[in-house]
Amino acid sequence: RILAYPHTMIGSDGLPHDEHPHPRLWGTFPRVLGHYARDEGLFSLEEAVRKMTGLPAAQFGLQDRGVLRTGAYADLVLFNPDTVIDQSDFDHPTTPAAGIEHVWVNGRLVWRDGAATGERPGRALRLQQLSNMGGVQ
Predict the structure, then answer these.
(1) pLDDT for 49-97, tens place per residue?
(2) Whose CA, among 7, 35, 85, 103, lies 20 to 30 Å from 44?
(3) Cα 43 to Cα 9, 52, 61, 129, distances in angstroms
(4) How far is CA 38 from the centre of its chain?
(5) For 60, which DSSP code?
(6) Nearest by Cα to 66 from 111, 115, 120, 11
């Protein structure tokens, strides 16, 4: 029920260099798309994407992130809505999700057909507007 609330943002934390991370490190977002949006119908696929991208970017003042528009950063995930789902578990916590076909960060391809490309164009993002923390619009 909490996930369905319009102002609920969906995110994940974890230690990517942990030898045995929690399965949600690799599976949070595919689980939201495949299980909660597609299978359970808790919200639409579009709403799931908004909760994981545009809503948090706006809340934390990250300009030109979490949106598709000219001039915005090209951080994109191409996934198959019929097959996307997490596959990690506690025995195999780094198993890649099904249905994630390509990922671009800052316009550069970083994930292709189940494997990293070796590109690392990401960078740390800084909170830009503390005053934006007061409420979601």
Answers:
(1) 999 999 999 998 888 999 999 999 989 999 999 999 999 999 999 999 9
(2) 103
(3) 13, 13, 25, 29
(4) 16
(5) T
(6) 11
Q: How far apart are CA 93 and CA 81, in angstroms?
A: 22
Q: Which amino acid is at 108?
A: R
Instruction: Check: CB of residue 113 under 8 Å from CB of residue 103.
Output: no
Instruction: Indicate the helix (H) or strand (E) that contains 25.
Output: helix 24-31
Sheet containing 100-105, strands listed edge to edge, beginning at the edge strand earlier in sequence: 76-79, 100-105, 108-112, 115-116
Q: What does the block give as tokens for 59?
A: 């809340």
Rounded CA-CA distance 116/121 in Å is 12
- DSSP string spanning 64-106? T-S--STTS---EEEE-TTT-B----SSSTTPPPBTEEEEEET
Residue type, 87: Q
Question: Quick one: tokens of 84?
Answer: 């996307």
Residue 3 carries which side chain, given as an amino acid letter?
Answer: L
